[in-house]
Design goal:
Elements: H1 2-22, H2 24-86, H3 94-107, E1 114-121, E2 125-132, H4 135-148, E3 152-158, E4 167-175
Helix pairs in contact: 3-4
Length: 182
């Protein structure tokens, strides 16, 4: 009985070994197909991951380049302002005009809310004509100027707002005696 049991226990592995040797090429083809299928799925995931990261990186670079280009345009505008407006004003206060432009530029970032039509400045006074999107922007601009130019008496007026057009304004500032611009 023990011999029969031993033969029966060995019969199955021997049969499997014989079956594997008989069909070994088909088994290898099957394993190869399954491996190629698994590798192609893994490759697809890796390609998607690589493509997504490449696109995200490129978009970040494009946004950074766009901001750089916008800064270059701002710099060109400032150079143009310096060349065309500030250089001819030999006896006038350049710092005052730069403060005016800077405070207007801070308000302009969300959208074009303020624009100047005329700026006249000398060491003791200035006059600004321009247009604003609404009266709140005018008030904010006036408050910023009062904060920057503490040594000046600033007063102004704005036109009555029309339908959806920009509102015109006129600001004047005169330097107080015994004070300087900060």
């Amino acid at each position: 009985m023990k011999a029969d049991t031993m033969i029966n226990l060995l019969k199955r592995p021997i049969q499997m070994r014989l079956w594997f040797h008989r069909y070994r090429y088909w088994v290898l083809v099957g394993i190869t197909c399954i491996s190629v299928f698994a590798i192609s799925i893994l490759g697809g995931f890796l390609y998607d991951y690589w493509t997504y990261n490449t696109l995200v990186t490129n978009m970040a670079n494009i946004q950074a380049n766009t901001k750089y280009i916008q800064l270059q345009h701002e710099l060109q505008k400032l150079k143009l302002i310096e060349r065309e407006i500030l250089k001819p004003m030999y006896g006038q206060n350049r710092h005052l005009i730069m403060v005016l432009l800077d405070s207007a530029n801070q308000l302009n970032h969300p959208q074009q809310q303020i624009s100047f039509t005329k700026i006249i400045a000398n060491e003791k006074s200035f006059s600004i004509d321009g247009q604003v999107l609404n009266i709140q922007v005018y008030d904010t601009f006036k408050q910023k100027l009062m904060g920057y130019l503490r040594g000046y008496d600033i007063h102004g007026k704005q036109d009555a707002p029309k339908n959806s057009e920009m509102v015109g304004f006129h600001l004047e500032g005169h330097r107080r005696d015994n004070s300087r611009t900060d």
